[in-house]
Each structure stands twice: as C-alpha cells, then as structure tokens.
Amino acid sequence: MSDYLDTARRVIRCEITGLEALARGLNGDFARAVDLILGARGRVIVSGMGKSGHVGRKIAATLASTGTPAQFVHPAEASHGDLGMVTQADVALVLSNSGETPELADLIAHTRRFGIPLIGVASRPESTLLRQADVALVLPLAPEACGSGIVPTTSTTMTLALGDALAVALMEHRQFTPEHFRTFHPGGKLGARLAKVADLMHRDMPLVAEDAPMSDALLVISQKGFGVTGVTDAAGRLVGIITDGDLRRHMQGLLDHRAAEVMTPGPRVIAPDALAESALAQMQDGKITCLFAVAGGVPQGILHIHDCLRAGIV
Questions:
Q1: Are both 22 and 147 inside the same structural domain?
Q2: For the segment 24-48, what is each residue's pLDDT rounded down to a tens digit?
Q3: Are the C-beta atoms of 303 and 211 separated by less than 8 Å?
Q4: Within 13 Å, how many C-alpha atoms sit on residue 110's CB side?
Q5: What's the CATH code of the domain at 164?
Q6: How far apart, in whole angstroms, are the C-alpha atoms of residue 100 and residue 13?
Q7: Number of domains in the chain
Q8: Which of 3, 96, 171, 253 could disulfide-pair with 66, CB 3.0 to 4.6 Å?
Q9: What is the pLDDT of residues 185-213, one digit of tens each?
C-alpha cells in the first residue's frame, strides 16, 4: 500500500508542478483568446483527438453551462461532413499536445479558408496548429506524470485547467450568476440548490379573512391540506397564521372565535425570489413545516418543507 500511495503522491505533485508552470506562463495571448470568444456571434467549436478530445468535450460542456455557447466537433467526423457545423460566426478552439495531430488538418484548413478565428492549444510553439492559429496558447513543457512520457497526464490536466480558466474568465466578464447557471443546469444537486421559492411554492393557498369565523378557518385548513391557514386583512396583506398549536391553545370555545382572535400575528415569511434552500433553513430553524411567500405584504404562495425535500434540497 505504501508503494501505491507514493506513486499517487508523485503523480499529483508532478501535475501540480505543471499547473504552476501553466499559471506562470499565461500572458496577453490568453486575454486575446477571451476577447476573440467574446467577439464571436456564434459558438465556440471545440475539437481535439484522443485524450485531447475527451478533455475538449468537458471544456465545451463547461463553456455551454456558464453562458458561452459551445459544441464539441470530432475532427475525424469533421472531415466527413461535420465541417458544415463550423460557420464563419463561430470561433474554433483546437486542442493537441503535439500540435501535429493529422486528423486536425481538415478542420484547421477549413478555418483558414473561411476566415474562422482559430485558438490553438499545444505544447510546441513551432507546431502546425500554433503557427496557423490566430491566438496560440502554449502549454509549458512539463513531464508527464507517468514517468515514461508516453501517457497524457500532466498535459491533459493543464489543458483541462486552461479550459476552465477560459470559461471562468468569460463567465465573470458576463457577470454570470447562480440564477443564470440554473437555467442551463436545472437537474441534479446544483439545480436543486439554486431553485427559488417561486419554483416550488403552491399558489392555491389556505387563506381566510381576519373576521372569518373559526368554522370557516377549520374548513380551509382541512381542504388545503397544509395544516395551517394564513389570515389576511381587508387589503389582502398577510397579518397572521393559524396552526395546530393555535387550535390547541384555543380549544375551549374554539368555534366562538374569529380568525384574528386565534391566529399567531407576524408569522415568518419569505420572498418568492429567495432560494428554496434559504426557505428550508428558515423552516428547520423555526421548527415549522410551512412558509408563506410574500411580496409587498401580500401572500403569493405557500411552501411546505416536503416540497423542498422532494426537490432534493437537504
């Protein structure tokens, strides 16, 4: 086991060294690449062969999910018709550690023929890819972590990190927010964490007027199924809430009362545009199961703790 751990640590340290060299080597060409992408009217077409292709798919996915339209095009498929996907409105981001990958030749030629901006990423400045590119992003010469230099390890890690750096620089320039991110990522844990109260709340709310008899309030509580009812004033503003605790406290002569006499005034509320995660935290903190979503004092919906749990917010 000790040998395995020594190998793992050596590999990680080797790749860290490569990443540090990459960070030191970044210059104005990186800024030019960002500007080139920002100026494109179309998409970022990412391409690469082999391991560079696998990294390219991830870079394209990261760009697309952070506000930069992107698509991966396989270079071999490009030579058999998929070049039609690459238009003059696009910018190409082509990855190749050597810069001499033969399968990229047709794609590179296509960008030169139609004046499509080309960003090349490779480790050899004199390579065909970087000589042809409008912007050349040079990976530093760093040893592969395999020790023999034949397995893409450090080089692919640096390429992946460079893609992340581009995506985040573009994202920050566009002031891309978590709300924007959720538009492209509605599923999974991240989507759940970014869900808003308005996305989950029920608009058919249990509500009664202040002067409603408690017989009406009990009927509303029973019909709506939330175990509570909100109480509103003549202007429609939420002024209180009736819970099962309120019912128990007024059990003696309950039906002789009006809603305003039984309710708990000034209930906890939340804004419809607040994150559902915040609503869940507030319910857990107050040991309650429901929150009314209120805007300008007027109830817009009601959120039950089970709505949050069903959405995967925990």
A1: yes
A2: 999 999 999 999 999 999 999 999 9
A3: no
A4: 23
A5: 3.40.50.10490
A6: 28
A7: 2
A8: 171
A9: 555 556 666 788 998 999 999 999 999 99
